[in-house]
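Recall that a protein's primary structure is simply its ordered list of amino acids. Everything else, from secondary elements to tertiary packing, is in principle encoded there. The following example makes that idea concrete.
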Amino acid sequence: MTKDLRAIDAIAFDLDGTLVDSAPDIREALNAALQQEGLARFDLDTVRAWIGDGPDALILQALRRQGVPGDEALRLRLRAAFDAVTLAAPLQFGGVFEGIAELVAGLRRALPMVVVTNKPTPLARAVLDAAGLLPAMAGVYGADAAAQRKPAPFLLQAAARQLGVEPARLLMVGDGPADLLAAHAAGCPAALVAWGYGGHAAAAGAAPAWRVATPQQLLLTVRESRPVRRDEETTTTATTRV
């Protein structure tokens, strides 16, 4: 399926599993926090399957898997340790997905971009900075409270307001059901990427999403849909050099 993006004024990207392959770093932060409390560690495949709902949900999953009650004090200690490890080395073991740097550079000349993620904002900004993607983003909308997390529409609605665009003209690009459901709730169109952690099945209750096989496909589709803006950018660049 090829999507006509002439009706799109801005793009919102999910972070983990969409822009960056951060699962190895999330695993490292989680395991460091668990080890500090004398709890068992988890392998990469297990942790990758839990990614998408933010660190608090991730920690709760790890505790449940071990049969640990997880009182509030323990969860707070684990979260503090998780954050500290993440901020100290945001993208030490993972990296930017292939083609994403070129996608972001190309889209920057066509449309404003934001990140809408269930990762808390300070952690999201640290990861984006380490990935070299932060300067290209017009905003970073992280879930700093449980009620803000996708599939709730809160973050997408906030991004649309700041960008000054209608939600129907803000494309949500993500890799999992929460992204599709949040887009549906906010009234945004959605694109589901094939290279992430959870983008192989549609979300029940969400509108059909545009399936994107590669970052290059998204970039080329935007360019084909917006030839006038690309020509204007070329003219402006040439004038500036003269």
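Confidence is low (pLDDT under 50) at residues 228-242. Residues 72-88 form the longest helix (17 residues).
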